From TrEMBL:
Superkingdom per UniProt: Bacteria
Chain ranges of the YiaAB two helix domain: 13-65
Organism of derivation: Shewanella eurypsychrophilus
Key words of the record: Membrane, Transmembrane, Transmembrane helix
Protein name as it appears in the record: YiaAB two helix domain-containing protein
Length: 90
């Protein structure tokens, strides 16, 4: 299998993404804890925040899977086209 088309992220980029996500999550948590209002309001914002994070991760994964699927379909179509062209050139 030809691995020349595989794109991977560098270790520093992955580290940056993880640190950024952690900082954002901690900042959001601190903001909710120290925001004025009762426990009901804080709980509501905490649940909404967790749902937003979950939905963002799900959306990101779904879009990535869709992109990978389209790349695979394109590779299959390209292989079929090359096979047909090779048959005609012989």
């Amino acid at each position: 299998m030809d691995n020349s088309h595989i794109q991977s992220n560098s270790a520093s980029w992955i580290f940056f993404i993880k640190v950024s996500f952690s900082i954002a999550l901690i900042a959001m948590g601190i903001g909710i804890i120290f925001m004025p209002g009762g426990l009901v309001i804080q709980g509501y914002f905490a649940i909404c925040s967790l749902f937003l994070v979950s939905a963002t991760i799900t959306l990101s994964k779904t879009l990535r899977d869709e992109h990978e699927s389209q790349r695979l379909i394109s590779k299959i179509n390209e292989a079929k086209t090359n096979k047909i062209l090779n048959e005609f050139s012989d």
